[in-house]
Amino acid sequence: MPNYSGVWTLQEQYEAILSGNWTGIEQYELWAWGYNNDGQLGDGTTVSRSSSVQVGSATNWSQVDAQGTHIAVIKTDGTLWAWGRNSSGQLGDDTVVNKSSPIQVGDLTTWSKIAAGSTDTAAVKTDGTLWTWGSNNFGQLGLGNVASISSPAQVGALTNWSQVSVVYKHAAGITTGGALFTWGRNTTGQLGLGNDIARSSPVQVGALTNWAQAATGSFHTACITTDGTLFTFGFNSSGQLGLGDTANKSSPTQVGALTNWSQVNASGSHTTAVKTDGTLWTWGYNNYGQLGDGTTVSRSSPVQIGALTNWLQVSAGSYLTAAVKTDGTLWTWGSGFSGRTGHNDILSRSSPVQVGTLITWSQVSAGSAFTAAIYESRTGM
Predict the structure, then answer these.
(1) Is 142 inside a domain boundary?
(2) What is the per-residue pLDDT across 262-316, written as a single tens digit (0 to 9) for each?
(3) Tens digits of per-residue pLDDT, 21-55?
(4) Which residues, at least 6 apart from 178, have a Cβ–Cβ distance to it below 8 Å?
(5) What is the domain range of residue 113?
(6) Which residue, among 320, 328, 250, 329, has the nearest Cα to 285 in the 3D structure?
(7) Do 272 and 315 contact (CB within 8 A), yes or no?
(8) What are the φ/ψ torsions at residue 182 (nearest 5 degrees)?
(9) CATH code of residue 107
(10) Is 270 helix (H, G, I), strand (E, B) or coil?
(11) Is residue 250 part of a domain?
(12) Overall domain count for the chain
C-alpha cells in the first residue's frame, strides 16, 4: 500500500485523490523575491531579495497576481490582501500610502478572482460582480469616467463576470456567457474594437460568445476561445502578437491555425502560452532572453521552448518569464535585475532554470521586477 504521509508532489496528490486515499492537510505559503523599493515583496522591508522570502506566516493563500510594483492576493477564506506601491490607490485601502506588509482590503470574504495592473487593480466576487480601483487616467477602471479611486468600486451592474485581466492602462474581462469585453487605453488597438478610441466603460469585442481566457499586456491583448484557438490584437513592434510580422492589429486576429491552446499570458512586449499537450511556447521581445529559447533574438511567431510536455502554468513579467511544471517545480528566465529570477544572483538567463529544489509550487506570477509564487506544503494524516 502506498505511503500516504509526509510531503507530496502534485502528481502524488492527484493520484491519491483519484484513488480515494487522500487524507492530507494542504497549506499554501506565499513567497516573493526581486525588486522591493516599494515593499512589494511583503516582508516588512524595502530590501530587494535575489532568493525567495516568505510573506508572513499565513498558510491559506489561494491566488496571487503581481504586476507593476504591487501584489494582490486572495486567501482560501475569500479575503483580499494587497501590498507594495500605492501612489494611485491601487492597494484599495482608501489611502495612497505604500505598504510593505499585507493589508486586508475591506472585510469581505467573497472575492474569487484578482488581477493586479501597473497602477490599478481589478477583482471579481463570488456573486459575479466586477470591482476596480487605482489609477484611471485612460478609463481603465471601467467606471465611465477618468477619476482615480483608492477603494473598490463596482463596474456596471452585471453579475456574470468570470475573469478579468489588467496590466497597463487597459483591461479585458470575460462573462460566464463567453462574451469578451475591453476598456481603457486604446492607442494601438489593444481593445480589439477596430479603432484606437479609448473607452471608460466595458465594450463587447465582436459578437462571439465562446471566449475562455483573456490576457492583457502593456499595449496588446491575447485571448483563447473555448475551441482552443488563440487570437491577439494591439501593438506588435516586437512580434508580440505572434502573427509572423510586426504590424499592429486593432481587431482579434487568429495566431496560426491550431486549436490546442490552453493558457496564455502577456506582459510588456512578449507573450507566453501553454498548449493542451503541455508544451510551452513564447514570442515577442527577447532582449534579456525572456522567451527562453536560448537566444536574445525577438520572435514574431510562437517558438517552442525545449521539447518537454509537462508545463502547467506560465506567467510573463517585464523582461522575465516564470513557469510551474506538473511535477511542482518552479522555473524562471530572462532579466535578473534585482534578483527577480530568484537564483540568488542578478544574472540574466535565456533558458529556463529551476528555482531551488522544492517540488510543490502550484502558481507563480511575474511582475515588473519581482516574482511571487504559492508553495503547497502537504502533510499527510
Answers:
(1) yes
(2) 999 999 899 999 999 999 999 999 999 999 999 999 999 999 999 999 999 999 9
(3) 555 668 999 999 999 999 999 999 999 999 999 99
(4) 208, 209, 210, 211, 212, 226
(5) 61-322+337-356
(6) 320
(7) yes
(8) -135, 160
(9) 2.130.10.30
(10) strand
(11) yes
(12) 1
